Task: inverse folding
């Protein structure tokens, strides 16, 4: 899962990024509206956390432009603007949720998680594929009831594939959703990562479609 | 007020005009009476002169040297006994002939002879004690060397009574004229001062929040005042807006650091975090409440604004459905499309937003909002099917910072601000049992408003 944090207060951005990374996200930060508008439209994100009062460009206009370009990524507005008129305006501009500062980090994480799940069409925080279960709230994965010990990157891969069960996901997409922007792309790393996860899960769950990518089989 | 003694323009003008009018009319009447008096006196004197002349013309001496009067015209006034209209022709100290009005068998001269060749007017007392004015002359007939003394007199009171009659009529006429002037003045004043009253009414309407600027059609002089007032209002509004914007910017600027501090403190051991979290919470509450109050403070056109309730409700419910999507709430409302709140849309947003948000927070499945037109305005009832609030605690929910459940999100200021706004509009807010479930809470608002009747 990959998240974009748009926040001009660098310390606040740092805190949110840290919390999201701990929660299994690859996080990119940007600190002004121009950059946010560009990155949000060119990179693939599973969620964006967007401040409204930004240098160079207002967060609301950034959001409107994303939506006008058909960008459907879930967006949570995180702002100090707390009037109901501002909330309505933000949500009408295309935000999926609106959280007011000062906020509790747990509240933000709960909302981020719920929104990501909803955008992938899952109602519960527990995703399951056959004997494999993954709780996105607690970040625990179990195989036939036994706990799987996964690294952060391994968890991210599994969570992404579980969110898109029975869909073929290309290596490029995986690279985009699992790593931060500054990561040096190397075609090998995904293969190595998939193999590491397969060792822990058994070979049948993640199938390789040659030339296309990977698929998590829900029936296994 | 710069002067401690107030006065009325109208009063002052009336007072001065009346003083001026009294002085002008009095001077004028005194002058006219004096003029009339001298005119009457001259006419009186001419009558005397004419009589004297005709007597002189009738005076003749016979060849024996006897005085004789021919063809004396008998004017009625000289016939009436003791009327004051007398004449005498005196020769050598004896009254040779006199008017019938003197009515005496042994006549004696009215006055002693004066050695005065010209016609002279004198005032003296008649035989009955009547004040008289007389024309006397002593004529010397050269040819026979005889001197005749002629007296003609009339009652002095005749002049006076004419002048008094004239003066009385003049005073009555002038008094009427004064009254007409005064009523014209009052009428004119009322007309002239009407625009000032209009202006005053306009300014009151602004203060009452019924309009935001003056758009009266006024005379030039007051139109300038109106323009200046409008500029002042605009200026005032801009200053207020700026102050509000600054308060708002300050609050927003504080919220980011508070947010960072709180999140940082949450990472610290609990003993270290406690004080930071407490203080951050206090900071957060005061910025929130001061910001809300800065927004509320003295807006001019608040009461003039009109807000459609159904539009506000649908916008808010659209937002709240997104915010509570996870909970899968059913939020419904019933409201006539032309129901109107007499007030600012931001204020209605805040009141309904906070109350419905609160209802959504506590509801298990359903929230229902019903807005209706009632006799005293509009009534909005917000019901949920949540756990409700015990009757004993219902009074306390509007206290600042009060949070009945510390585990849910929120500053605990929402309801306090809601109450402030509702009171500002002279509305009421009350808590009841909900009809949606056994335990749920219903909040009923009464606000100023109407239902517009469309043709």
Result:
């Amino acid at each position: 899962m990959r998240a974009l944090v748009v926040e001009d207060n660098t310390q606040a951005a740092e805190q949110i990024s840290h919390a999201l990374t701990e929660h299994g996200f690859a996080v990119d930060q940007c600190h002004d509206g121009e950059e946010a508008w560009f990155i949000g439209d060119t990179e693939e994100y599973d969620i964006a956390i967007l401040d409204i009062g930004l240098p160079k460009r207002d967060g609301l206009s950034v959001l409107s432009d994303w939506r006008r370009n058909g960008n459907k990524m879930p967006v949570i507005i995180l702002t100090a603007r707390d009037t109901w008129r501002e909330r309505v305006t933000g949500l009408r501009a295309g935000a999926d949720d609106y959280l007011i500062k000062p906020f509790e980090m747990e509240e933000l994480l709960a909302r981020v998680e719920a929104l990501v799940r909803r955008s992938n069409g899952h109602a519960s925080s527990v995703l399951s594929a056959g004997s494999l279960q993954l709780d996105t709230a607690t970040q625990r994965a179990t195989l036939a009831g036994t706990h799987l010990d996964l690294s952060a990157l391994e968890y991210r891969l599994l969570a992404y594939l579980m969110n898109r069960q029975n869909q073929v996901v290309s290596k490029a997409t995986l690279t985009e959703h699992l790593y931060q922007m500054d990561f040096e792309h190397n075609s090998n790393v995904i293969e190595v990562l998939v193999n590491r996860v397969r060792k822990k899960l058994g070979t049948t769950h993640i199938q390789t479609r040659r030339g296309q990518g990977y698929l998590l089989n829900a029936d296994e | 007020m710069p002067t401690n003694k107030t006065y009325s323009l109208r009063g002052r003008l009336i007072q001065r005009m009346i003083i001026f009018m009294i002085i002008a009319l009095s001077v004028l009447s005194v002058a006219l009476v004096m003029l009339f008096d001298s005119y009457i006196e001259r006419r009186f004197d001419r009558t005397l002169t004419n009589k004297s002349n005709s007597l002189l013309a009738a005076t003749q001496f016979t060849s024996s040297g006897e005085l004789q009067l021919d063809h004396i015209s008998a004017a009625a006034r000289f016939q009436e006994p003791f009327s004051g209209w007398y004449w005498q022709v005196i020769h050598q100290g004896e009254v040779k002939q006199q008017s019938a009005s003197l009515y005496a068998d042994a006549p004696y001269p009215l006055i002693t002879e004066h050695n005065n060749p010209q016609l002279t007017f004198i005032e003296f007392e008649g035989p009955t004690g009547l004040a008289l004015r007389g024309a006397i002359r002593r004529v010397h007939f050269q040819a026979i060397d005889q001197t005749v003394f002629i007296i003609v007199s009339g009652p002095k009171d005749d002049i006076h009574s004419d002048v008094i009659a004239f003066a009385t009529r003049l005073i009555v006429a002038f008094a009427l004229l004064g009254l007409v002037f005064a009523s014209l003045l009052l009428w004119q004043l009322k007309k002239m001062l009407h625009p000032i009253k209009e202006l005053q009414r306009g300014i009151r309407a602004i203060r009452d929040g019924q309009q935001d600027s003056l758009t009266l059609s006024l005379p030039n002089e007051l139109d300038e005042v109106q323009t200046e007032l409008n500029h002042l209002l605009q200026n005032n509004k801009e200053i207020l807006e700026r102050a509000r914007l600054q308060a708002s910017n300050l609050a927003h600027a504080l919220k980011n650091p508070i947010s960072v501090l709180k999140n940082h403190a949450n990472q610290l051991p609990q003993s270290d975090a406690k004080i930071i979290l407490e203080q951050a919470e206090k900071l957060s509450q005061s910025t929130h409440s001061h910001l809300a109050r800065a927004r509320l403070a003295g807006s001019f056109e608040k009461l003039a604004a009109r807000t459609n309730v159904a539009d506000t409700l649908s916008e808010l419910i659209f937002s709240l459905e997104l915010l509570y999507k996870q909970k899968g709430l059913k939020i419904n409302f019933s409201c006539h499309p032309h129901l109107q709140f007499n007030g600012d849309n931001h204020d209605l947003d805040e009141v309904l937003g906070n109350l419905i948000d609160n209802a959504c927070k506590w509801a298990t499945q359903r929230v229902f909002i019903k807005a209706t037109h009632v006799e005293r305005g509009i009534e909005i009832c917000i019901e949920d099917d949540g756990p409700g609030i015990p009757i004993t605690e219902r009074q306390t929910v509007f206290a600042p910072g009060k949070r009945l459940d510390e585990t849910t999100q929120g500053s605990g200021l929402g309801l306090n601000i809601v109450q402030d706004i509702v009171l500002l509009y002279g509305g009421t807010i009350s808590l009841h049992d909900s009809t949606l479930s056994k335990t749920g809470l219903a909040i009923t608002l009464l606000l100023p408003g109407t239902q517009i009747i469309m043709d």
User: Anything to note?
Assistant: Chain B touches chain A through 33 residues (CB under 8 Å).
